[in-house]
Design a protein that fits this description.
CATH topology: Rossmann fold
Number of helices: 8
Strand content: 15-25%
Number of strands: 10
Order of helices and strands: EHEEEEEHHEHEHHEHEH
CATH class: Alpha Beta
Helix content: 25-40%
CATH architecture: 3-Layer(aba) Sandwich
Shape: globular
CATH superfamily: Glycogen Phosphorylase B
Length: 270
C-alpha cells in the first residue's frame, strides 16, 4: 500500500523564514508527518531574505520551464530545493526576479506596503499548483498556512479540480493572527481571475481585500480548518469555529504534541 501524501504550502517555515511563531509549527508538522510515515513535500516562496548559501538551496533543473500567468503576463518560475535540517524531506522554494528577489518581504525599507503584494500572492498560489503538476505527485492532503496561500483552496476547488494530481486532494487551511493592516490593490480579485478558469463569486469572500478577508477566502474553500494562534480575528473565530461541513481543529498551543493534526490528516485521507 502506497504512503499517504501531504503537501504543505506555506508563507513561512522555520528555519528559512520566521515571521510569526507558526513558522516553527509548520516545521514541526512537516517533520512529525514524515516521522509517522506520510510522504511529505513543502512549498514556500523564496524571498530575497532567505540565505541561499546558508540553507544550501540549489536549482531543480528538471522542474525548469514553468511560466505562471499573472495579469495577462507570463512570469518565469525558478524552483530551488533544500533538505530540511535533521529530517529527510525536501522544501521547494518558488523564485522569480520580479516578485521575490527584493531584500524586503511585504514592506520596503521605509515600511511602505508593496503595491504588488496581491500579484505576488497570485503568482505564489498559481506557481505552487503548477509546480505540483510538474512533479506529477498527487497529494492526499494539502495544508495551506499563511495569508499568501489563501487562493490555493479556491483554485484547487475550481480551476484545478479536473487536474489528475488534485482530483482526490483534501484541503486544510490554517487561520492565524492577522499580520498586516493594509489592503491589497482594488483590482486584486479581477487579476486573480485572469486565466484561472474561476468565477468572481468564488472569490467574493475576499472582497474586503484585507488580512481577514484573505483568511476568509482560504477557509471558505477548505475541507478542514485549523486555528494557529490565540490571536485569531474574533469575526473569523465566530464564523469558522463551528463551520458546517468542515472538520475543525482548535488551537491547542504551540507546545502541542501535534496529535490533533495527525488525526486530522488521517481522517481526511481515508
Amino acid at each position: 500500500m502506497s504512503k499517504k501524501r501531504i503537501l504543505f504550502i506555506a508563507t513561512e517555515m522555520s528555519p528559512y523564514l520566521e515571521l510569526t511563531e507558526f513558522a516553527g509549527m509548520v516545521n514541526r508538522l512537516a517533520v512529525k508527518s514524515n516521522d509517522t510515515g506520510l510522504e511529505v513535500r513543502c512549498i514556500m516562496p523564496r524571498f530575497g531574505v532567505i540565505n541561499e548559501r546558508r540553507h544550501r538551496l540549489h536549482e531543480v533543473v528538471r522542474l525548469s520551464g514553468i511560466n505562471v500567468s499573472v495579469d495577462n503576463d507570463d512570469y518565469p518560475l525558478q524552483i530551488k530545493v533544500a533538505s530540511l535540517p535533521n529530517a529527510r524531506l525536501q522544501v521547494y522554494f518558488l523564485e522569480n526576479e520580479d516578485f521575490f528577489k527584493r531584500k524586503q518581504i511585504f514592506h520596503d525599507e521605509n515600511e511602505e506596503w508593496f503595491d504588488d503584494n496581491g500579484l505576488r500572492t497570485i503568482f505564489f498560489c498559481k506557481g505552487a499548483l503548477e509546480t505540483v503538476k510538474k512533479f506529477g505527485w498527487a497529494p492526499d492532503v494539502v495544508h495551506c498556512s499563511g495569508w499568501m496561500s489563501s487562493l490555493v483552496p479556491a483554485y484547487i476547488k475550481t480551476a484545478y479540480k479536473r487536474e489528475p494530481v488534485f482530483g482526490n486532494s483534501k484541503i486544510v487551511f490554517t487561520i492565524a493572527e492577522n499580520t498586516f493592516e493594509e489592503k491589497l490593490s482594488p483590482d486584486f480579485i479581477k487579476k486573480a481571475l485572469i486565466n484561472a478558469n474561476i468565477k468572481e463569486k468564488d472569490l467574493d469572500s475576499a472582497k474586503e481585500l484585507d488580512n481577514t478577508a484573505l483568511y476568509r477566502v482560504g477557509a471558505t474553500h477548505a475541507d478542514a480548518i485549523t486555528f494557529g494562534s490565540e490571536e485569531v480575528n474574533t469575526k473569523l473565530m465566530t464564523e469558522f469555529g463551528k463551520a458546517k461541513g468542515k472538520k475543525i481543529v482548535s488551537f491547542k498551543g504551540l507546545d502541542t504534541d501535534l496529535s490533533e493534526y495527525m488525526d486530522l490528516y488521517e481522517s481526511l485521507s481515508l
